Amino acid sequence: MPPIVFRKGLDLQKDLKDAVAGELAAAYHSSIIDAIQTDGYVRRHGRLTIHLAREFGFCYGVDRAVDYAYQTRRRFPDRTVYLTGEIIHNPQVNDRLRAQQIRFLSDPGEDRSRLGPDDVVILPAFGVAISDLAALERLGCTLVDTTCGSVLNVWKNVRRYAQDGFTSIIHGKVHHEETRATASQATGVSGAHFVVVRDEPEADLVCEFIRHGGDAGAFVAHFGDAVSPGFDPQQHLVRVGCANQTTMLMSESLRVGEMLRVAMVDRYGEAALAEHFRAFDTICSATQERQDAVVALLDEQRLNLAIVVGGYNSSNTCNLARICAERVRTYHIAEPACLMSEDAVRHRPIGAPSTAAVDEVISRNWLPSGTVSVGLTAGASTPNNIVGEVIERLQALAGDPDGPNS
Fold first, then answer.
1. Residues 374, 49: Cα–Cα separation, whole Å
2. Are 102 and 235 within one domain?
3. Of 139, 163, 128, 150, nearest in space to 248 by CA
4. CA–CA separation, 233 vs 193, rounded Å?
5. Any domain includes 405
């Protein structure tokens, strides 16, 4: 008997959704955020002015995934519920789910081979690789699939590339859960291949091979597990299709796609481009909206500094920090406690690898004296309550509005 898979909500979804709504609001709502949005995304407190980006924090896909996880716990109160890994890249949210007695298969000591029909497994917003899904189905687990619709759109396009004999060039981070899942979809057809390029310099290596050829062995050795098994650039870079991890920097994904298009024109000519190159819009709208909003904030306001709130292994949060850092002194923090004092801030260095184990640094003299204007945004996996607590912490450090700093 095939396993039960919930992909569009759970049974009695409306009742379950209502049942967990209060719990979600208590965990993630912020009255401060409500107030700052009502006041035009500006909050003034003594010498401090905070400008909040107009798009920030939880996106629809993340909100849906977290909602489904709470519903799953409520729907199966007497069964063991697992997540394959982090549901999203936010430590506070994941810890709250652990507190709900949802176990993480990625945690030390967990053994997925012991799973069976009595167990419930939640698939995260990033999705899972085809092989992982097949293994869970063979074990007979009940599955709750929270894969984001934007990710599913990327999968649809890379499957189409594979079916038509095109190699998928994926702009992403090869060890990111979403990119691993997308790569598995790109090789879902026999003989199909992929290359993952992290940035423009890596894309340039692919473009140079398209134009001029080269040492195939050196190419494969350079990319390592960022190419599919059996990849031969002499054969598999003749026809390529572009895709991206949905949380990458939008402008960079577009530049990577244009680099590849130009390389194919140089190699095969404009008239033959359609035979060798394809590109579909696989940029997540929520990611784009948050990036556009922070650019607008930087354009419109004179800021002394920017604070970006979100998990250090959150790709979209790291990219928001990159955008801000090009224009103003920026601190990427994971939680309100990172604002240690008026003198010290604990943060992730801009441009450091987006891994959970990245080392924090402490910077001094981060909060200017006198009047100060702060730009604030948060990644798509950061809930409102965390952003609200950051605002409260900023207000406390900037001083009492009725005191000497007024």
1. 6
2. no
3. 150
4. 10
5. no
pLDDT number for residue 12: 54
pLDDT at 358 over 80: no
CA 321, 322, 324, 330 dihedral sign is positive
Q: Are 339 and 299 in the same domain?
A: yes
Residues 101, 221 within the same domain: no
Over residues 204-221, the pLDDT tens digits come to 999 999 999 999 999 999
Last residue of a domain, one of 283, 301, 332: 283
In angstroms, the CA 218 to CA 210 distance is 14
Count the domains in the chain: 3
Q: Which pLDDT does position 283 carry in this prediction?
A: 78
| Final residue belonging to a domain, choices 231, 260, 283 | 283
403 has a pLDDT exceeding 60: no
Catalytic hit among 55, 177, 178, 389: 178
Q: Is the pLDDT of residue 357 over 90?
A: no
* CA separation, residue 405 to residues 44, 226, 302, 390, 391 (Å): 13, 53, 20, 19, 17
Confidence of residue 402 (pLDDT cuts 50, 70, 90): very low
Q: What is the CATH number of the domain that holds 394?
A: 3.40.1010.20
Residue 41 in tokens: 């995304």
Alpha-carbon 208 to chain mean position:
29
Are residues 320 and 375 part of one domain?
Answer: yes
Residues 6+ apart with CB under 8 A from 392: 32, 336
Asked if residue 270 and residue 175 are part of one domain, the reply reads: yes
Beta carbons within 8 Å of 264's beta carbon, 6+ residues apart: 210, 240, 273, 276, 277
Specify whether 221 is located in the same domain as 272: yes
Q: Are residues 179 and 119 part of one domain? A: no
Q: Model confidence at 99, in pLDDT bands (50, 70, 90)?
A: very high
Q: Show the tokens assigned to 175.
A: 């060890």
In 117-193 the beta strands, taken as DSSP E runs, fall at: 120-123, 142-145, 167-171
Host domain of residue 296: 39-58+286-398
pLDDT at 207: 98
392 is catalytic: no
The pTM of this model reads 0.90
Find the radius of gyration of the CA atoms of the chain. Answer: 23
Share of the chain above pLDDT 70, in %: 96
Q: Where are the beta strands (DSSP E) in 119-188?
A: 120-123, 142-145, 167-171
Token digits of residue 196: 């993952």
Binned at pLDDT 50, 70 and 90, residue 404 comes out as very low
